[in-house]
Amino acid sequence: MTSPVGFTLVQLRYFLVAAERGSMTEAAAELHIAQSAVSTAVHNLEQDLRVQLFIRRRGRGLTLTPAGERLRLQAEELLARAREVAEEARGGGESLSGPVSVGCFVTLAPHYLPALFSECTRRHPGVELDVVEAEADQLVQALTAGRVDFALTYDLGLATEPDLDGETVARAPAYVIVAADHPLAGRDSVELADLSGEPLVLLDLPHSRDYFRSLVAATGTAPEVRYRTGSYETVRSLVARGLGYSVLNQRPATSQTYGGGEVAELRLRDGGPPLDVKIATVRSMTQTARARAVMDLLREIAGA
Length: 304
Prior knowledge:
Layout: H1 9-21, H2 24-31, H3 35-49, E1 54-57, E2 61-64, H4 66-89, E3 98-105, H5 109-123, E4 127-134, H6 136-144, E5 150-154, E6 164-172, E7 175-179, E8 189-190, E9 199-203, H7 208-217, E10 224-229, H8 232-240, E11 246-248, E12 263-268, E13 275-282, H9 289-303
Parallel strand pairs: 3-4, 3-5, 8-12, 9-10
Antiparallel strand pairs: 1-2, 5-13, 6-13, 7-11, 7-12
Helix pairs in contact: 1-2, 1-3, 1-4, 2-3, 5-9
């Protein structure tokens, strides 16, 4: 026989809204109930769990305590699971519906998200995709804070995060791009030493910049960074103008750039091991059925 649980799902829901709004008054307005009902539910929840969930400051609203932050993550997961149980009980388990929040490394987004949205709309029309595009550190923060269900990202910095798991779904070798009229453009492959002394157009994102610099430095030369930008397509457009070469990992379907120029892609013989593209998740988090379905779609897209 299972032990009884003192708190209710309603209390958890009220707690989550109060945490999100940072105010009992605003939470009550969103829930269309009296403020006293929210305050009582949160108070009883604290009494039952024997922890303080909020720091209450007059005129400054509510701030989650460390215990409150832990409960927030667990409560979101528990309520998501409760919704799945309700759907199954009503016989609606075969049709997935509801929101799924996906984090995506900013340079991977154009290559994966269009196919993901298209396939998800076709196969799971009831699923609502919400995407956060960001660089690696921001995605880690979004995962650990519970703002996204999972993230598609490069294996940049993931190994140092003990609370995260990463599943490799694709591998992306480094390659060089030069302007279409560059003297090396007709080659099939190059070594970075072949470009020694030429300016490097750097994709300037945290972790990415260190990765690209390390590839060039491994040849025994210091890269001459002439231009830098956080935009993948701006890098390609600058190279197409003959302003330098660059090293990238994802390959677009066309050699044309937004600026109207054209680049040539060259296999990199001394580029080191490919970067792993991974689905990153929080180790202690149980994914909802709809999140698992979206991850399955990403595996298919990456495999293709």
